[in-house]
Design goal:
Mean pLDDT: 95
Order of helices and strands: EEEHEEEEEEE
Strand content: 35-45%
Radius of gyration: 15 Å
Number of helices: 1
Strand order of the largest sheet: 6-7-8-9-4-3-10
Largest sheet: 7 strands, mixed
Helix content: under 10%
Shape: globular
Amino acid sequence: MKHTGSCFCGAVELQVTGESAAMGYCHCRSCRSWSGGPVNAFSLWKPEAVEVTKGAGNIGTFEKTAMSQRQYCTKCGGHLMTNHPTLGLVDVFSATIPTLKFAPGVHVNYAEAVLPIRDGLPKLKDFPAEFGGSGEMMAE
């Protein structure tokens, strides 16, 4: 299965192949600030499943921490994806790949939430233990 997406202006196109490793919502301050919303919808992929098919020269990168290399189009500023080298995963913004059926399974960094969401999904205080977090669950 392949899904194609692009930045806001279409100068950069990317393709994801196969199945997403995970989908969910992040509530951390960094993701909220970067996405411009109270919650960020993510889809995580193995790096080999993500390919830039057009406009690679138009990709800029901002690295606030060693955990997140946020990539955007230098022409329109449209957000594309975030490489997480310490996790071995790439977060492709769910809205960037419109044909992907978004099926969230978890909320991460819910301790920082500014918009409570009562959807029955697990709510982790920070990250799963396998990603260096506490794995601690929070009440809905």
